Amino acid sequence: MKGRGRARWAVVLSLVLMVAMVAGCGGSNSGESDDVIKLGFLGALTGDVANYGIPAEKGMKMAIDEINAQGGVLGKQLVGIYEDNKGDSTEIANIAQKYITRDKVVALVGDPCTGLTKVAADIAQKNQVVIFSGGATGAGVVEIGDYVFRNTMLDTVAVPVVVDWMIKEKQWTKFAIITSLNNGYSTALTPIFEQEIKSQGGTIVISETINDKETDFSAQITKLKGVGADVLVFTGYYTEAALIMKEAQKQGVDIPMVGGDGLYGQDLVKLGGDAVEEKVFLYCGFAADQPSEQTAKFVENYRKLYNEEPDMFSAQYYDAVMILAQAMENANSTDPKVFKDQIANLKDYPGVSGNTTIRADREPIKSPVFLVTVKDGVFPSLVTKIPVNVE
Amino acid sequence: MFLEQLLNGLTLGSTYALIALGYTMVYGIVQLINFAHGEVYMIGAFVGLFLVTVLGVNIIAALAGAMLFCMLVGMLIERVAYRPLRGKSSRLSALISAIGVSIFLQTLLALLAGTNTRAYPSVINSQTYNLGFAEVSLLQIIILVFSALLMIGLQIMIHKTRIGKAMRASSQDLDASYLMGINVNRVISFTFAIGSALAAAGGVMVGIYYNAVWPYMGMMAGLKAFAAAVLGGIGSIPGAMIGGLTLGVLEIMGVAYLTSSYKDAIAFGILILVLLIRPQGLMGKKITKKV
Question: Is the pTM of this model over 0.90?
Answer without folding.
Answer: no
